[in-house]
């Protein structure tokens, strides 16, 4: 890391967090906590000016070629500043044609293009790639609920990645291999971990604090001329690797692959490669359906593995139901329903109106639970035929 980048990192880890936290306390104490225009002007100016001074130095320094890690961390730090400016409405994409943060945009576009990622902060900057110094990692504020949210996002993401790793290792073995069952058990256990983390997050996170003081930092913002959708905990490949390797979602389903295409640049380059690889693999479900046509020639482990496959599908479906029915409902939908109409625009991280986003998330949940829906490419009939063939009742 260059000296300028280090100083900037120190600023992000100190004054930046202090200013944001002070502003959050001011907004949260207001009668309308969603209105940022009522107070805090001098703090907002301080945030903008201090950040700009650091970034101008870095922008002038140009590409110092310090390697991927340093560049990616710097992109995250520039992104945190741009995300905070958006949160405090120092910038507002619908008000502007192009970001007024000219130096920050220049730096972010330069780094993003050279690394092959979107030129904004992504979830990985705050979760899986967030170096702690003396036990404290980067964040927007020092609010307890932000740390809770980030801790559990990170745990959930790593657990999904563990499940994806185990399933990926089944690819060269196939569904009839004696050891594939071990990998399916590992995947199921990892998904049970996701479920346990979701439960803890659901129980511990304060809905109002999350909604008013944490979530707004994840809104879309402009970098240069283009607006980039917000970050969300789903911007890693693991969850989609699981979808595809199990076969619950299919790369040839245009609405699902559209989602993947839109998400590539929000993932780390290594995740992009993993996901591309999964998109061309035959799923476990398709291998089982093929095997059912002549089960006697599939060897003695086929049925055992197929049973475990169904358990993994159930565990995956359960985490998707929790995400939609518990997390999204309690922390987004319910608080939105009491929000003044004037604040409804840009409520979601990705930008579309809430009902459009909810329908999209519901569709994903229904694919992952193999729900009986004929208007989407749910595999419920295939799952039912596997169950019938191996005599496995729905748990
Ligand atoms: C996407 C809400 C926690 C995984 C989303 C989206 C929302 C949301 C609203 C849609 C993206 C958008 O806003 O534009 C929440 C809330 C959470 C939470 C309110 C907790 C307070 C988590 C956790 C995980 C997770 C802990 C686990 C890693 C995902 C995934 C997606 C996503 C994978 C992408 C869509 C998908 O493939 O299902 N989340 N989320 N979320 N979230 Fe969460």
Automatic annotation (TrEMBL):
SUPFAM superfamilies: Indolic compounds 2,3-dioxygenase-like. InterPro entries: PrnB (IPR015029), Trp/Indoleamine_2_3_dOase-like (IPR037217). Pfam families: PrnB (PF08933). It comes from Congregibacter variabilis. This is DUF1864 family protein.
